[in-house]
């Protein structure tokens, strides 16, 4: 109690973690990151699918393509 006789206000007294919402939010975040990473890897392979690869041969007089 304070000097005036009124109880002190504690803003954290009724704070309770909502673990279900926290869990769902975390799983959603992980799912979005995984989907984006798979799309990024797949798009890189799709973009290079029709292009011929350049082979680099090293000879005595330098690099030839």
UniProtKB/TrEMBL annotation:
Protein name: FXYD domain-containing ion transport regulator
Single GO term (MF): sodium channel regulator activity
Entry's localization field: Membrane
Family annotation (CDD domains): FXYD12 (cd20330)
Alphabetical list of InterPro entries matching this protein: Ion-transport_regulator_FXYD (IPR000272)
Regions crossing the membrane: 24-43
Membrane topology according to the record: Single-pass membrane protein
Organism: Oncorhynchus tshawytscha (Chinook salmon)
């Amino acid at each position: 109690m304070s000097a005036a006789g009124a109880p002190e206000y504690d803003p954290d007294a009724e704070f309770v973690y909502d673990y279900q919402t926290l869990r769902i939010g975390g799983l959603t975040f992980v799912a979005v990151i995984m989907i984006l990473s798979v799309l990024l890897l797949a798009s890189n392979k799709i973009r290079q699918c029709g292009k011929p690869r350049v082979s680099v041969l090293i000879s005595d007089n330098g690099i030839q393509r």
